[in-house]
TrEMBL record:
Name of the protein this chain belongs to: DUF485 domain-containing protein
Keyword Membrane attributed: yes
Residues covered by region (Disordered): 1-31
Record keywords, A-Z: Membrane, Transmembrane, Transmembrane helix
Annotated organism of origin: Nonomuraea montanisoli
Transmembrane segments: 58-80, 92-114
Length: 131
C-alpha cells in the first residue's frame, strides 16, 4: 500500500521543502557594515554620511540655542529698561549676566552636546555591528 492511500481523504497533502546541498554555497556572504566602511564602499559611505549628518544637526542645534541665548540677552536688556538698572551684588545685572553667568550656560551646553554626540556614536556602533 502506498503512502497516499494511508492518508484520510479530507486531509490536505503535506508540504515538503526541497533543498539542494549547495544552497549555502549559492548565498552571498553577508559582510558586517564595519567592513563596508573600512573598504569605503557605497554602502559604507551611506553609513558614514548618516553619522556625520546626525552629528552636524546636533552641533547646529546646540550652536543655535546658545546663539539665541547670547544674542537674546542684550535684546532683553534693551527692551526691558528695569533689567538694565537692576544690580546683582553691586554689579549691574547686564554686566553680571553677560560677563559671568553666561559661561555656565556654555559649559552646560557643551556637556549636553558631548553627551548626545556620544549617544549618537553608540547608536551608530550598534547599527554597524549588528549581525
Amino acid at each position: 500500500m502506498s503512502r497516499r492511500a494511508q492518508r484520510p481523504p479530507d486531509e490536505p497533502p503535506r508540504r515538503v521543502a526541497v533543498t539542494s546541498p549547495r544552497t549555502a554555497a549559492a548565498r552571498r556572504p553577508r559582510y558586517p557594515a564595519t567592513r563596508e566602511i573600512d573598504e569605503q564602499t557605497h554602502l559604507g559611505e551611506v553609513y558614514m554620511r548618516s553619522l556625520l549628518r546626525t552629528q552636524f544637526r546636533l552641533a547646529m542645534f546646540v550652536c543655535t540655542v546658545l546663539g539665541c541665548v547670547v544674542c537674546g540677552l542684550p535684546l532683553l536688556f534693551l527692551l526691558i529698561p528695569r533689567l538694565r538698572e537692576a544690580e546683582l551684588l553691586g554689579v549691574p545685572l547686564p554686566w553680571a549676566v553677560l560677563a559671568g553667568l553666561i559661561y555656565p550656560a556654555f559649559v552646560i551646553g557643551a556637556w549636553l552636546y558631548v553627551r548626545q554626540a556620544e549617544r549618537n556614536e553608540r547608536h551608530f556602533a550598534d547599527l554597524v555591528e549588528r549581525p
